[in-house]
Specification:
The complex is a heterodimer of chains A (434) and B (203). Chain A has 434 residues and is an alpha/beta fold. Chain A has 2 domains: 186 residues, Rossmann fold (3-Layer(aba) Sandwich), CATH 3.40.50; 157 residues, Glutathione S-transferase Yfyf (Class Pi), Chain A, domain 2 (Up-down Bundle). Chain A is built from 13 helices and 15 strands. The longest helix of chain A has 40 residues. The two termini of chain A are 22 Å apart. Chain B is an alpha/beta fold and 203 residues long. In chain B, strands 4-3-5-6 form a 4-stranded parallel beta sheet. The relative contact order of chain B is 0.08. The chains are: A alpha/beta (434), B alpha/beta (203).
């Protein structure tokens, strides 16, 4: 899938901007603070209904603006174009339209326009707390299987209710109503087991993609390892049910070569294990006044040659690992949906050494990646390593003004000029407005 | 825009407190009321007050009614052996509008939600169990249909009630989930479609 064109109104630096993209590598170039990243945010909002930097739409709204409007034209890999429009009015919320018809729920958008974001924050995936890794997993699986997001939202809502029951009882120094707790526990375990079973199946397939990706960008032969073991090291045995149980599966991701029946049995087994875990720890949870077990607490273990990355990796290893995770995400999603995700890269080159930039840009330019859109403070970062004719350059000047000049790149030798603000004229006249 | 009269502003304020009414619609409604003859407005105001003064709750099914027991509970033509359990009286009206249900009802008055401070004791659950346990002069209850919302709170309540009803010889059912009639498969969200696929029926 590619995005052909985007129209942005009332978003941070952009009062009214139109940007056109190529199917391959696109570089958004300009000084700091002019709104390069905002263009990526706008694209991301059309794909997943929110920015990758914040979930607060008010923050993204241009100061003094009463309306934010983004409209994008996408072309699917199988052909056929689709228009996505997002409108946000403070106090009234967001509205989304795909091909002219309104979406009832924002979440219905997720997965239709797959997107992968690289950002300097990716280092946190390996360096910081488990919530970053959970979010990473949840993002990929949600975009790969819509039911997953549904289960996740449901799980979160039950979790809130169950936590409130436990918390309120603890505050009032009484034990919670046993049957209400049992009912909420069951409601929690249903989507919870589906989430766990989906994550397990996902990791099983993802490990191979991570291995490949890490090999591509790391100079040294280190082997990445990834493990999700919510119930200890032992694998999940199949549940011994012969009769069909219609309640399973609730999730959608299967391990390679796994039949739907096997998947149902596996999820049922997870259900039993999870339910048992909560049952055994009920008094503990009542004493603590909160839900202590479940997918919201699970860790995704990352290793490098068998050593936990979080504790042992160097800065450089963290960086490589973070990029490998994202590259593997791209690869996984592309294989799963048979639709190439959009690749957004936010200032990832600025802190990389030349060898890594080289390796990475080679991947971007190769057939492995479809459309990519990257921001860079200096155009040389991209142009020194890529054939300029193979890359569309979009300049953003102060005030969020977007200047598109495909031709100037050939005229100006890539290394000749220092970063500069593009003159407003005559290039401004060539602004593509249709 | 603001109306120059304070009483009109107050009316706008009141309208905008209604569910689903924003300030813009509230202003339109207020402007409409301004244009109406006084008799019509009095009629409307009286209807509003009458709702609070005259309407009572049926002591059997807890539906809103003018008399106790309500006409549905009194009716001999309705099957007392089947009870349809709903969260709110408005849900009852929705089921009733289908014209396809000829049993009796039970209005819970909400759903279990610790976040809103609503526990089973705040709902008419005890009363429902009592109806099943001791039908009195009425027929034995054969089936309880849980027509609660497919939300976390509705489902929790449904499971809670089903556990309480387990000791009785009564069939407990839930509404099916699936694709709304008149909608387009293409535009049905994947989650609903997946559930509908799971609960498919033979033709």
């Amino acid at each position: 899938m590619i995005i052909d064109r985007i129209h942005i109104r009332g978003l941070r630096a952009h009062n009214d901007s139109t940007v056109t993209f190529d199917a391959g590598v696109n570089a958004i170039v300009g000084p700091n603070g002019v709104g390069k990243t905002n263009i990526l945010e706008a694209i991301h909002m059309l794909c997943l209904s929110r920015s990758f930097l914040t979930s607060k739409d008010n923050v993204i709204l241009r100061r003094g603006s009463s309306l934010m409007e983004i409209e994008g034209h996408f072309t699917k890999d199988a052909g056929g174009s689709q228009k996505v429009r997002l409108a946000f009015v403070p106090g009234e919320g967001k509205k989304l339209f795909v091909g002219g018809s309104p979406l009832e729920r924002m979440t219905d958008l997720v997965g239709r326009f797959p997107v992968v974001v690289f950002s300097p924050d990716d280092q946190r995936l390996t360096a910081e707390g488990p919530e970053f890794r959970r979010r990473f997993m949840d993002n990929i699986i949600s975009q790969s299987s819509p039911v997953y997001l549904d289960n996740l939202l449901r799980y979160r809502q039950v979790l809130k209710q169950r936590n409130e029951l436990l918390h309120a009882s603890r505050r009032a120094r009484r034990t919670p109503d046993e049957m209400v707790l049992e009912s909420l526990t069951r409601e929690l375990v249903m989507p919870g087991a589906a989430i766990i079973a989906d994550r397990m199946a996902f990791i099983e397939a993802f490990a191979k993609h991570l291995d490949d990706a890490h090999q591509k960008i790391s100079e040294v032969a280190e082997k990445p390892g990834i493990a999700y073991a919510p119930f200890g090291r032992a694998g999940i045995p199949e549940a011994d049910i012969d009769s069909e149980d219609g309640s399973f599966p609730k999730g959608g991701i299967t391990i390679p070569n796994e039949s739907r029946e096997q998947r149902a049995r596996r999820e049922k087994r997870v259900f039993e294990l999870y339910a048992d875990q909560l049952e055994r720890n009920r008094r503990h949870e009542i004493a603590r006044g909160m839900t202590l077990y479940g997918p919201h607490r699970h860790e995704l273990d990352l290793t490098l040659d068998g050593h936990p990355v979080r504790r042992f990796a160097s800065q450089g290893q963290h960086r490589t690992y973070g990029m490998a995770l994202k590259l593997a995400q791209y690869d996984y999603m592309q294989h799963r949906r048979e639709e190439r995700p959009l690749l957004l890269l936010d200032d990832v080159f600025d802190n990389l050494d030349p060898a890594r930039i080289e390796a990475f840009l080679a991947i971007l330019g190769s057939d492995a990646i479809g459309q990519s859109i990257t921001t860079a403070a200096r155009r040389e970062i991209v142009h020194n390593h890529l054939d300029p004719s193979a890359c569309r350059t979009i300049f953003v000047a102060r005030g969020g003004e977007v200047l598109e000049d495909e031709t100037s790149i050939e005229k100006v030798p890539p290394k000749a000029t220092a970063p500069r603000e593009e003159p407003a004229s005559p290039l401004a006249d060539s602004l593509t407005n249709d | 825009m603001q109306f120059s009269s304070e009483s009109v502003e107050t009316l706008v304020e009141q309208f905008s407190r209604l569910p689903g009414i924003g300030r813009k619609t509230a202003r339109r409604l207020a402007a409409f009321v301004l244009k109406q003859p006084k008799s019509d407005v009095v009629e409307m105001a009286e209807a509003l007050i009458a709702v609070k003064e005259k309407v009572i709750f049926c002591s059997t099914c807890f539906n809103v009614a003018d008399h106790d027991p309500c006409p549905v509970c009194l009716s001999d033509r309705r099957d007392g052996g089947v009870i349809c359990v709903v969260e709110e009286a408005s849900d009852l009206m929705a089921v009733e509008r289908t014209g396809g249900f000829s049993g009796k009802y039970h209005v819970l008055g909400g759903a279990i939600s610790p976040l809103d401070g609503i526990g089973p004791e705040d709902l008419k659950i005890k009363e429902l169990i009592a109806r099943v346990a001791a039908p009195g002069d009425g027929p034995v209850v054969r089936e309880v249909i849980l027509a609660v919302n497919p939300s976390v709170e509705g489902d929790t309540t449904a499971y809670y009630i089903s556990q309480l009803l387990a000791p009785f010889e009564v069939q407990v059912t839930r509404l099916a989930r699936g694709i709304p009639i008149g909608s387009d498969l293409e535009f049905t969200d994947e989650a609903t479609l997946t559930r509908a696929l799971e609960a498919r029926v033979s033709v």
